[in-house]
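Q: What would this complex look like in 3D?
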Amino acid sequence: MGNSMTDQTLTSETQTPPKDQSDKKPGIIRVEGMHKWYGDFHVLKDLNLTVDQGERIVICGPSGSGKSTFIRCINRLEEHQQGKIIVDDVELTDDVRQIDTVRREVGMVFQHFNLFPHLTVLENCCLSPIWVRKTPRKEAEASAMEYLERVKIPDQANKFPGQLSGGQQQRVAIARALCMKPKIMLFDEPTSALDPEMIKEVLDVMIELAGSGMTMMCVTHEMGFAKTVADRVIFMDGGEIVEQAPPHEFFTNPQEARTQKFLQQILAH
Amino acid sequence: MTESTMKAPKKALRPVKWMRENLFSGWFNTALTLAVAYLLVTSVGPLLNWFFLDANFVGSDASDCTGAGACWLFISQRLNFFIYGFYPDELQWRVDTMFLLLAVAFVPQFVERFPGRKWLGLFGIFGLPVVGYFLIPGGTFGLEEVQSSKWGGLMLTLILAYIGIIASLPIGILLALGRRSDMPIIRGICVVFIEVWRAVPLITVLFMASVMLPLFLPEGVNFEKLARALIGITLWQSAYMAEVIRGGLQAIPRGQYEAADALGLGYWRKMGLVILPQALKMVIPGIVNTFISLFKDTTLVLIIGLFDILGTVQSTVTDPAWQNVAIEGYVFVAFCFWVFCFGISRYSQNLERKLDTGHKT
Amino acid sequence: MKKQTIDTRPAGPKPWNDPRVRSLFFQAIAIAFVFWGGWVLVDNTLSNMESRGISTGFGFLNETAGFGIIMNLVPYDATMSYGRTFWVGLTNTLLVSAMGVVAATILGFIIGVARLSSNWLVAKMALVYIEVIRNIPLLLQIFFWYFAVLSNLPSPRQSVDVGGALFLNNRGLYLPEPLTQEGFGIVWGGILLAIAAVVGIRIWAKKRQLATGQIFPTFKVGVAILVVVPLVSYLVAGSPIEWDIPALKGFNFGGGITIIPELAALWIALSLYTASFIAEIVRSGILSVSKGQTEASKALGLPNGLTLRLVVIPQAMRVIIPPLTSQYLNLVKNSSLATAIGYPDLVAVFMGTTLNQTGQAVEVVAITMAVYLTISLLISLFMNIYNRAVAIKER
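A: Here is my prediction, written as structure tokens for the whole assembly.
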């Protein structure tokens, strides 16, 4: 548990670029001096990050750099052993009720969709509103249909996930997460399991979502997406945050050698 | 890259931490652990006493079993009967030879990269039955004949299981091919045959073999009881074998069939050269598993009056010369079966894992 | 240019090279072979039976059996017919099978879940149980319980006495039998009322959840109603049950319900043995639900209990049910091992004694096999219907 923490004010001031969103809540996600180990393997090393409401963060880095693990720590699918993670003023500890509170406010989209194959698309979307938010079914279904329309597949509502294409499944997964009306959306490589022709339809949905002012953290290799919508790009390597900068700066003038090397490799082809 | 030398925070000593996480996390787990631990502690002591500390190992007859524990004497005294049945003492070298050959053929299968282990295995499947056919009953090559009614014990158990599995293999292959055939009538015959045998208990099959088989045969033709049991077991087992092999045939990708067709191979060449070699290799674990269940099921022959290992023990525990040795006898048989079945099932699990990864790469 | 029309059809093959003709030919041979084999068998059997003086036909079913059976669920005594012995055997088979299925399912699910427990000791104990029990022949286990355990129980005079109502000795387990008295109708009414109330509450709770989203603790309230209402009605009616308590009369017990040791041994062994297979099925069923599913459910904010109930169990059951039913089928078939210890099941009574006395092997074996075939077909029919109903739809 996060007993030993680094100096909180210092880290958050130095790492957050100044922003002028006075109506938005600053620091909806605060990560302070966070470490994680798998057994003896040190996966995440002293991570510090503050994300303001409405901010759109893209995390990139070579595979094995810990970026997926990091994003999964934010809704406690993975436990951290040291440091603090505070989401919407609730600190993630071993306390089950706090974890549930955070998860209710944080939507997540997985690389492999993870839709429930035994439920229809509509039932997938309504599951959490009905059982967690205790919404009447009619209301839950109506709002689910709205979100399905937003991701442009209302006509598939009564099909089962197995009957849809990968791109459609991922859009359902996004709609399912949105049905919780979360304050934050996490995307864990949402397009890497998709065929090339389906990537665009998912990215379009994500871009539209970004335009609506949702707070987003997205692990992705889609540099085009990063350039168009991100407020900040974070580069991770070896479990550390190596560099973070607004996309324009990040792509044109990377400071660190590791970032330059990564960008060369990824933009080479 | 700066390698951090930080170690994971250690909240407690390792064993203590392990116990807290794996035995005492929450009141429910703690209660469960304590209950199980209590049961273990109270039962292990008496069991240990019965098995070893108070048990009797030396002596010559029941009067030497004076301790409160197990009378292992009973096993060691009757061991010969449990292994060979009524097979004459001076001819038991023939059975021992078969045991040895069996071990030579199959023990290396557990050792990876044993030189020539494939050939030993093939000898075990094709050569061993031939050797056994001449050696065990005798009557040829100047060997004295031993009636099958004198066979018994572990030896009979192994014969039943072994012949049952080997003989059912070719029938099972034909049935599996028939069930996947394009010809509706052939397919129908195979489906009915397989499903009928699979639906009935082995006991009814054994009864049928011992009561009805003599009626089916022309007058004058008759088999010994053992042969009748073997026919019943083989037919019954071949239905299960067919289903296992069918699983393998279905797992072969369509492309293999098409490639064989494209090469202009006829049906039997296609199956024999391309499909079956792959399918059979794939279903070895399944065949081994059916062997394990057949091996356990051979005990049923005691109901029709054959003396397999359980039959010999069962007939001895009711022997008035020995009293209250039933548990010892059953523990002995259980141990024999357990060692065989557990060992073989571990082998098949390993094989399964290996074949599994082999197919994905 | 030639005016000749070209025949575009491929030239017909020689008949013996035409696959369709070949196929017909082989099938004709197969049919001929089957019929010839059948005819030879029937012919041999008939001549054999004639020479041995065995009568044929099903007339024997109406003849007097003349032997006693130690346990019967349908009324039976030695003056009744062979046909009646069939029903006695069949009901005994069905009884022990049903008892075994219930016990093996409960035990198997508990052990299967224990196998996945985070408690190291519990998980290891479950593993040991599975690996020991399923690698030892069932017949041996039946013998163990019958000859080594139950036969070594004290004689009726020294019975193990539990509270003066329940007696255990080497003749069996004696339980008090509830005899309903006048006024028990009120208790039945109470039970029916409770069931109706629970069903009603369930419907109401579901409707309310659909309409308002409120979740009602149906399970807890339901259990409470099921316990309290019948209990109150029992007391109101003036406790209208009298217990027929078994008592020692002479050398044995009389009164109450008796579970004979043959049934007990068979039931215990069948349940323990089948449970070890069911446990493995349950374990692999639960493991078959991928980690991504539980993660997604958690990410949606569903707590552990709901994740299990709404996501894991519905998917695991689809994997568990098919092999589970085949284990049930195995259990029914294995109950025929009853013969070995003298429990009067279908095989022991009908295929054993009745066959021996009448000698009509063909008819008796055919009837017995037909029974097992019917049970098997019914179970696979149920399986297919179930599979079709719950199949996860894919492209």
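A: To summarize the key features: The first strand of chain C starts at residue 160 and ends at 162. The radius of gyration of chain C is 30 Å.
Q: Very helpful, thank you.
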